[in-house]
Specification:
Strand order of the largest sheet of chain B: 1-3-2
Radius of gyration of chain A: 29 Å
Largest sheet of chain A: none
Largest interface: A-B, 26 and 20 residues
Distance between the termini of chain B: 27 Å
CATH class of chain B: Mainly Alpha
Number of helices of chain A: 10
Helix content of chain A: over 70%
Oligomer: heterodimer
Number of helices of chain B: 6
Radius of gyration of chain B: 18 Å
Number of domains of chain B: 1
Strand content of chain B: 5-15%
Strand content of chain A: under 5%
Shape of chain A: rod-shaped
Structural class of chain B: mainly alpha
Structural class of chain A: mainly alpha
CATH architecture of chain B: Orthogonal Bundle
Number of strands of chain B: 3
Helix content of chain B: 55-70%
């Protein structure tokens, strides 16, 4: 853009320095252009040439770098919605792992999900407590039944809380979105680490005879599925960013 | 007025201007300048990020307006914005009264500096 068109050159510079959602950038540029045209018209009305008027309008408006920084300044409130969604996804994953633990208990026994490690013993009082609910079973078996129920109930309760958070998330006002890829990348990091830790626990439990391995395995499977979903989303968003870098004239997809 | 002095009160000023009715960014700045008697020396471009932030906070709403033949983003104050404006006005009044009281007490002639401080 030549120096003969200062407003056009300024808008180009502003466009290059702005990041964020395509719609926000487009709207900001449209507003800035309207402002500069109005301001330049006012300066021309005071007797300046078009070139002088456009330069004066730009000087009044401020440096493009300063303005773009202003548009990108976030607030802690911007994090409220994504953090709520992240927490909801995490809790829903825990709830799903509870459902999976219930299925595993039915398919492979309560001991597979919540059985104790070899060598575990209970006091007679504790055994009596477990056997009160499962009188036909021995102490360890009734303890496994009891703990299986706890694993499932607590996790499903967490999942229900996740559903509540999902409703809260839907109702929270939409604000400036996080930069592209941040949510998915965080998901890959957090759920990937959880998958790894849960897989290690599963292997440990299986090495000691599979007793109680199901509680870790059910969680690892769900955490792994969420990690894979986040990884797919991350890859899609990074591909879009790559396309954007190669074709900067095209706005980023929202 | 220096821009750093003004920036802390920018939200209050923008909400006050828009309390009088819907306006687009350029008109908001023009109103601000007219009412203040050109006292505010703020880069005009810094007003737009503030308008966007106030809109994201639910204190303003905006729409594209083409009634003048050109497409402009017009801003108007919301009910939450009016409530926030009332609160900010109260805060500003208390703050300015405090500043006035301190300035008034320190500028009285013949008062010993130690007593004033």
């Amino acid at each position: 853009m030549s120096a003969e068109e200062p407003i056009e050159a300024y808008l180009d510079e502003l466009f290059r320095s702005m990041t964020g959602q395509a719609g926000d950038v487009r709207r900001s540029l449209a507003e800035v252009e309207e402002h500069l045209r109005d301001s330049a018209a006012a300066h021309e009305g005071q007797g300046r040439t078009r070139l002088e008027a456009e330069r004066a309008a730009i000087a009044d408006f401020g440096a493009a770098a300063t303005i773009s920084r202003g548009f990108e300044q976030g607030s802690w409130r911007d994090l409220l919605r994504p953090v709520t969604l992240f927490a909801a996804v995490g809790l829903l994953a825990i709830g799903l792992s509870g459902v999976l633990a219930e299925v595993m208990g039915h398919v492979w026994s309560a001991g597979f999900v919540a059985g104790d490690l070899p060598g575990t013993t209970y006091t007679p009082q504790r055994c009596a407590y477990f056997q009160e609910y499962f009188p036909a079973r021995d102490c360890l078996s009734s303890a496994a039944q009891h703990h299986w129920g706890e694993v499932v109930e607590y996790r499903v309760a967490a999942g229900l809380l996740g559903l509540v958070l999902l409703v809260v998330w839907r109702r929270l006002p939409r604000r400036r979105p996080l930069p592209r890829g941040v949510f998915a990348t965080t998901g890959v990091g957090v759920f990937g680490a959880a998958t790894l830790a849960l897989a290690v626990e599963t292997v440990n439990a299986s090495a000691l005879g599979w007793s109680g391995a199901g509680q870790w395995l059910s969680a690892a499977v769900v955490a792994g599925a969420v990690t894979a979903a986040c990884a797919l989303r991350m890859a899609r968003e990074l591909r879009l960013d790559h396309a954007w870098t190669r074709h900067p004239a095209r706005p980023t997809a929202e | 007025m220096a821009s750093n002095q003004l920036s802390g009160s920018l939200d209050l000023l923008l909400l006050s201007v828009l309390e009088r009715g819907e306006a687009h960014g350029y008109a908001v700045i023009a109103r601000l300048r007219d009412v203040s008697g050109d006292a505010f020396d703020l880069p005009e471009g810094t007003v737009y990020p503030a308008l966007h932030r106030l809109e994201a906070d639910g204190l303003l709403m905006s729409r594209w307006d083409s009634s003048t033949g050109r497409r402009r983003r017009a801003y108007s104050i919301t009910d939450s914005g009016l409530a926030a404006l009332g609160e900010k006005r109260r805060e500003w009044k208390a703050f300015s009264q405090g500043v006035q009281a301190v300035l008034g007490s320190l500028s009285r002639p013949g008062r010993p500096a130690q007593a004033a401080l």
